Amino acid sequence: MSNRPLNVGRSTLLFWRRLFAVVFTSSSLLPNFGSQPARAQVTEYCQLSSAAAQEKENLRLSALKGNQNAQTRYQNILQKQAQELKNCRTRTWPQVQALWLRLYPCDIQPGAIDQVMDRIVNRGYNQVYLEVFYDGQVLLPATANPTAWPSVIRTPGAENIDILATAIKKGRERGLKVYAWMFTNNFGYTYAQRPDREEAIARNGKGQTSLYVVDNGSQLFIDPYNTQAKRDYYQLVQEVLRRRPDGLLLDYVRYPRQAGSDSIATKVSDLWLFSPAIQEALFKRAQNYKGLDLIRRFLRKGFVTGTDITEVDKLYPQEGEPLWQGRITTPAQKSIQSATDRQPILQWELWQLTVAHAMQGILDFVTIASYPAKQQGVSTGVVFFPDGNQTVGQGYDSRLQPWDRFPTTLEWHPMSYGTCGNVSCIVAQVQRVLSMTKPGTQVIPALAGKWGESISNRPSLEAQMQALRKFSPQLKGVSHFAYSWQYPQHDNDRKFCRVK
């Protein structure tokens, strides 16, 4: 979760843009609403008063016991508060205030989702980012799940329960927009158990999959060039969109984050280029036989020597310089320089080629993943770490997350989770993103924390929000991670069915 922002100069930014361009052408208190005191009291950030929240909860509990009068009053209060929330958010920064939420099998119990959604409205949120694909499971009914992953709810007798459709419906009843939040390049451990998907799994030059380099052993990243992986994910998105969420959020749009010194990729064996599809696509970037031969040697050994270059020259004497996509040479280059002189240039350019090729796979996967939503006019966002695209010395952040190249037609959701004991590092992360966006890009920072108190070396949400308010002309929305942080006991009860 923690990411310490680094200062990245203009020269680094220009370098990144050149790399892609060259390699691939391809708040004040609000007045009270209404006239009924218990329902009308709202505080800063459009939060309901404790009296209004308790009145609604009492009605929910009475309705759950079969009290028809309470049921009618409960539905009326939901509609009233939905309108109040809409009015309040219209004139209160941020206009979009969202909360990240995970549901559990226990949430199929009567009234469970109602209670969760009510609490979200009570805190002034008007959007919910509902996790629908995570840890190799999907929030689809077991009897209507044609995807490559098992359903989250596998409780006997609950095979037909569509908790995703229910959550979307109940969210909307309260004036909430419900986005489907999905892991993307991280397909989860269950995918690794399928022998027919072995070639789709990303591997580095040490023969490892991400299961062996990520701490919790459950994250399985795939080869973004693999056709089967693309088909599986495309089908998953289509099934989720059948439930008509208000938006789609693509998370884990990157490669694995490794630990220690391995968190910086400095050599080709650090890259996730050692599965069949990504290699085949890399070889296709060669524009002559010399280029192809040198790419193969570089991938195999991690470097090329003057001897390699001499051998390649002799093998293909009819060709000029080794060529691959984006490599520009002058006619006189070969004749002027010896193989020894050319070696450092070629080796550096091969390193840039492989890094950019890996990143291009992420960008292409985003295009494929977001296409069904684009066809249906459904908003789509990409979730990323503000420092996931940086260079570090001669290396690159191992996540290789080229977010500054994400389409500006998508919402950008930077996870601004800085931990320095105050708001400065969080502000710096948001500032870095805003400095690299084009006009019109919708940026919605994700903040981690709790209302009214510090947690995990992060200031309260109020403090973080106040610090970001100076960016309000550019920032219309902010999200908070997560429901589980704000209601840890309730989240834990729901996770293990200790529902009271």
From TrEMBL:
Domain Glycosyl hydrolase-like: 122-265
Pfam families documented for this protein: GHL10 (PF02638)
Keywords attached to this entry: Hydrolase, Signal
GO function term, MF aspect, one: hydrolase activity
Coiled-coil segments: none
Record bears the keyword Acetylation: no
Superkingdom of source: Bacteria
Protein name: Family 10 glycosylhydrolase
